[in-house]
Amino acid sequence: MTIVEDRPVSTGGVDTHAGLHVAAALDPLGGLLGVQEFPATAAGYAQLLDWLGGFGTVALAGVEGTGSYGAGLARHLAAAGVQVVQVDRADRQDRHRQGKSDPAMRSARRGPRGPAGHRARRRAATARWRRSGR
Hints:
By secondary structure, this protein is α/β, with parallel strands linked by helices. It has a domain at 7-88: 2-Layer Sandwich (Nucleotidyltransferase, domain 5), CATH 3.30.420.40. It has 5 helices and 5 strands. The chain has helices at 42-53, 71-79, 92-98, 103-110, 124-132; strands spanning 9-16, 20-26, 32-39, 57-64, 83-87.
């Protein structure tokens, strides 16, 4: 009698950017297993693949921008035997209505924050200058 270990299968989705990639791991039913950021470097590609592999055998990876920011990652995943598919960006109007979905873009969009988490006031100096009459 042969015992076969039944390892779960997972799918990855990656939102690519110039400096970092945001990966999501999904179970076979599409349930979110986790989201993690990785640097857009060869070491980051290896970390991303190891992280996805922690959820099970990686059957498929959807990568945004396989011809630009995601090209290196797509090559790395394909060389490791993972099937890679190109994921198209959403329409610009749809993206604007829905807002930013990944943590890096949300934090970048919020802008700089002080130690208490409050947004920096950007127009205070201009208002003082106007009041002073200069």
